[in-house]
Amino acid sequence: MSMTRMPALYLSHGAPPLVDDPRWVSELRQWSTDLPTPTAILIVSAHWESAPLTIGATDPAVPLTYDFGGFAERYYRVRYDAPGAVDLAAKVAALMPDRLAVQHDSQRRLDHGAYVPLTVMYPEAQIPVLQVSLPTLDPEKLLDLGRRLRPLRDEGVLIVGSGFTTHGLPFLRDWRPDAVAPTWSKEFDAWAGERFAAGDVDALTRFKTEAPGMPYAHPTAEHWSPLFVALGASDDAEQVGKQVIDGFWMGLSKRSLQLA
């Protein structure tokens, strides 16, 4: 395993059927191929909100969290038996300002915002993976959390914020993977791409009031919020990030970002 300094990622993770989309699978696999091999992966997903910061299971025997409904049975039989990142869990706790405030949930393992993209990017499941909760949806507090986690990148840890650049599920009328993106999704995506390119973190934190397509693009903020953990973990969030994936799936923007 490499000790190369790793980037921080914000990726749009998709629902369980992501694995059936050849283009998206190809994009994610190419992305992981282009990265150095991590010593471990630390991931925060839109699908686990818990305060204070909660560290998930480090025992790979704990079942995955199948936090979805209405899909084919085969999606509930997926396994991802990556090693438990026990050492990483201890390091994350040590980086927090009040170690006593950090909680542990030994029964909550990776949810679909974590394991679905990882089954594509690292299908061998040989790299230790740790999931931590979103302890807040406040952008400034999440930027601070990312800053605290930043030193882990020097130890080869890949820090991943897993969300979705648009996530207006209540407003979708066409649920096909190749559906034409609604206007609100296209407008928010274009704005996000411009703000990413400009390194305009302040504007990104003000998405509720500044971004076109709101509130339809994000009727709730949890799928946008992991972005700020990744931005905080970057060396300089105002540098231009590499936009690795763009386009739409089911009308939702899958724009994804790599930060140095």
Automatic annotation (TrEMBL):
It holds the Pfam family LigB. Keywords: Dioxygenase, Metal-binding, Oxidoreductase, Zinc. Belongs to the DODA-type extradiol aromatic ring-opening dioxygenase family. This is Class III extradiol ring-cleavage dioxygenase. The keyword Oxidoreductase applies. The lineage of its organism: Bacteria, Bacillati, Actinomycetota, Actinomycetes, Mycobacteriales. Residues 26-239 form the Extradiol ring-cleavage dioxygenase class III enzyme subunit B domain. The keyword Cytoplasm does not apply. InterPro entries: Extradiol_dOase_DODA (IPR014436), Xdiol_dOase_suB (IPR004183). It comes from Gordonia rubripertincta (Rhodococcus corallinus). GO terms for molecular function: dioxygenase activity. Its cofactor is Zn(2+). It comes from the Bacteria.
